């Protein structure tokens, strides 16, 4: 029995050491932002070669990689600290990490893109859309998603996840099967109940001809993304504590139940689930084998600002680009967009983000202690580790 206990402790210690290094997480963020930039560049500068444009369009999976990395990072940050008022401090850190740049992006894109009707806002942008966006509630109303700030649907999902995360990890602790059980339950509720009901409601509200718009916004809604975050939390504890046969059984049940629900409801989310599970396996593999490459890691450390700024970079290049659409044009624009977005990110780090992080540190500074080799519990005992930037 003592030998088994030592083995379990050694597994946790090895997992903690592996997860305490941020290099693989930065590498994954770098891959994710390269994917996101790829899809948006290809939409504005198509190569007109089906295989190439399809490959670039697959960059949408970068957002989901961000979700997995975010969940893993949040679990790692939460379990490495013992401090007073952890939930309040968590909210301060997350708000000051995300809000300053996002609030700057709101007026910028309102000036650049205007407030008239668009594919994302059939009735135009008004005070409601701006207020919802500024308060990170835009994910809950269809024509406020992506209407004020391009790509802001993922920011809405991230911030909503941050809102519920302290309560979930406090309740579940390191019991990763509970995260998976909740992911399964929410997925089935979304596919069988919420999405069909919301589709009928908002289709009637926006009128005929907007069904595709409504369906797309429901697909990127928080309820459809939350299972991805929960699977990411489960992956963190599996990587830290070791995978078990029961994990495979739960994932198999998840797939089977999703397939049946998809056939019954026609919600078309089964393929999305399968892609996300494959991405989660890839994320776990990168962390497990400590995959890294410094140039990609550098992009990953600046991925948030790159995400917000690359839309403006692409729009600007579209106005002045001298080459006709084609493979050469696409590849050059992709490289230029990534480079310029990175330079913008470095500037915003020095001008905005660094000061926001300093403020977050001052507001949350306390005498925090860490322990080593102790698994997280529902009461907040933590594991030693080094923070990785989110």
Number of helices: 15
- Rg to the nearest angstrom? 21 Å
Number of strands: 0
Structural class comes to mainly alpha
Largest beta-sheet details: none
Beta content comes to under 5%
Mean pLDDT: 89
Our measurement of the CA-to-CA distance between the termini, rounded to an integer number of angstroms, reads: 39 Å
TL;DR of this structure?
This protein is mainly alpha-helical and 390 residues long. Helices cover 74% and strands 0% of the residues. The protein starts with a helix and ends in a 26-residue tail after the last helix.
Describe it:
The two termini are 39 Å apart. The longest helix is centred in the last third of the chain and has 38 residues, at 327-364. Helix 5 (86-113) runs antiparallel to helix 15 (327-364), helix 7 (152-172) crosses helix 10 and helix 14 packs antiparallel against helix 15. The chain is mainly alpha-helical and 390 residues long. The protein is globular, with a radius of gyration of 21 Å. The chain has helices at 2-20, 23-44, 50-57, 61-79, 86-113, 127-134, 152-172, 176-206, 211-219, 222-241, 245-265, 270-288, 294-301, 303-320, 327-364.
List the main descriptive attributes of the protein structure presented here.
single chain, 390 residues, mainly alpha, 74% helix, 0% strand, disordered N terminus
Give the arrangement of secondary structure elements:
Blueprint: H1 2-20, H2 23-44, H3 50-57, H4 61-79, H5 86-113, H6 127-134, H7 152-172, H8 176-206, H9 211-219, H10 222-241, H11 245-265, H12 270-288, H13 294-301, H14 303-320, H15 327-364
